[in-house]
Design goal:
The chain has 433 residues and is α/β, with parallel strands linked by helices. It has a domain at 3-159: P-loop containing nucleotide triphosphate hydrolases (Rossmann fold), CATH 3.40.50. It is built from 17 helices and 13 strands. It starts with a helix and ends in an 8-residue tail after the last helix.
Length: 433
């Protein structure tokens, strides 16, 4: 990473300006005395969130020449080492010597590629008149570094692929679930979202063959760059099998003991410790998320299996799940992501007392039990989906409960169970029901 290359990159960014943006729901603070750390899976839109923030700064009369943007995945900077990071501001000050003491904004994209990056960030945070934004694809690496060198100086933000509301905005579809013309368009968009997920590039693309290729490329990058290279993993066969198993079985209870036996039955050689480690790696790079069983007892939580969800349902196609398969579990996964990304939702669990309830979530002053289903066209399905809610209500009568359905049908649902269409739930604040 040499100074002349950095000069070119900095100046070229100033001349080219910001590319066209679809506005994201998440907003980063413009005025803060903290380092802003943005974490999210590869291709989820972290870079464009930085560009959105730069655009907002310029809208607040911050001149472009006070803004520095560096992407550490730019091959012109390789090899990137800590010692070379001083060249960034040195190159900038040679271009703009008048800005040495002026307030500046620096955006360091995919910073996890530099070993000991936190030392540089801490130093310029302490010595420069500068606001710092950093992004990374590994939540654990970023958090771990921050906890040692930048404790108390950082605000964290998570970036996910596009939400359903953001997809509707991109497609210029009005959010009016009870208006027939809008509902039809929303329903079509939801079907597409369930099948293809919310990665921005995939949402914008209309050719399904190209969409498949994009998702395959993403899966390969996650596997090799974010997992194998980042954690120096040797047992790639085990990792690939585990990745496929978890992505094709979202919204399922996952007992480590049962998973261990399943993997052994496939002829895989591993220890339980290795299994725990590999699952942890999948969580660290934001491919997997887990919910625990609700209990006030830590021991009960630890003794019961967790429920896993995946970052994007579109990835299921890459591993052999067809678009029209497993709609119920895909929808439940999407509902989880909706809950996870809403600021009003403070905690998410699953609940089980004889029967399993998909979600128990808490807001500031309310709690909710919900089950999620594609449809309830049979008495058996209706019984399964409603009895757990009624059982949960008996245990916690002050907690609201309802059933979220993709296909509206309430003939088989008891009158005391509220039914909310998925279209409405995914376009509303979960705390408002």
């Amino acid at each position: 990473m040499n100074k002349e290359t950095l000069k070119y990159i900095i100046q070229n960014f100033h001349e080219k300006g910001i590319p066209f943006l679809y506005e994201r729901k998440l907003k980063l603070p413009l005025k803060t005395k903290k380092v802003i750390a943005v974490v999210g899976i590869r291709r989820s839109g972290k870079t464009y969130l930085l560009f959105q923030t730069i655009k907002e700064l310029m809208g607040n009369n911050v001149p472009m020449h006070r803004i520095i943007y560096i992407n550490f995945e730019d091959d012109r900077l390789f090899p990137v080492k800590l010692q070379g990071m001083d060249h960034i501001l040195n190159a900038y000050y040679e271009l703009y010597p008048e800005n040495i003491t002026a307030p500046k904004y620096i955006f360091l994209d995919e910073i996890q590629h530099i070993k000991n990056w936190e030392k540089y960030v801490r130093r310029i945070f302490d010595t420069e008149n500068i606001t710092i934004y950093i992004t990374g694809s590994s939540s654990a690496l970023i958090t771990q570094k921050i906890s040692t060198a930048l404790r108390g100086r950082v605000i964290h933000y998570e970036v996910f692929p596009l939400s359903f509301q953001e997809i509707l905005q991109i497609k210029n579809i009005q959010i009016k679930p009870y208006l027939t013309s809008s509902e039809a368009k929303m329903s079509h968009a939801l079907t597409d979202y369930i099948s293809w997920g919310g990665f921005p590039e995939v949402v914008i693309e209309t050719d399904n063959n190209i969409r498949s290729k994009i998702l395959k490329e993403y899966a390969d990058l996650m596997f090799y760059k974010d997992l194998v290279e980042q954690f120096s993993l040797k047992n790639q066969y085990l990792l690939k099998y585990l990745l496929k198993h978890m992505i094709t079985n979202p919204a399922a209870l996952c007992s480590i003991n049962k998973l261990f036996q399943t993997l052994k039955s496939q002829g895989l050689t591993l220890s339980k410790n290795s299994l725990y480690e590999y699952l942890e790696y999948l969580q660290q790079v934001n491919i997997l998320f887990l919910t625990e069983k609700y209990s006030k007892s830590l021991r009960v939580k630890q003794q019961n299996p967790s429920k896993y969800y995946i970052i994007d349902t579109g990835l299921m196609q890459i591993f052999g799940i067809e678009k029209n398969q497993n709609i119920g579990s895909k929808l439940e996964n999407i509902i989880y992501l909706h809950l996870r990304t809403c600021e009003s939702v403070k905690e998410i669990f699953y609940y089980q007392n004889k029967y399993e309830t998909d979600f128990l979530y808490h807001t500031d002053n309310k709690s909710y039990f919900i089950n999620v289903s594609d449809t309830v066209h049979s008495i058996e399905t209706a019984t399964r989906e409603t009895r757990s809610l009624m059982n949960a209500q008996k245990q916690y009568p002050e907690t609201k409960s309802f059933l979220v359905l993709n296909e509206w049908s309430n003939e088989l649902i008891p009158d005391n169970i509220a039914v909310i269409p998925a279209l409405r739930f995914l376009t509303a604040n979960p705390a408002q029901f």
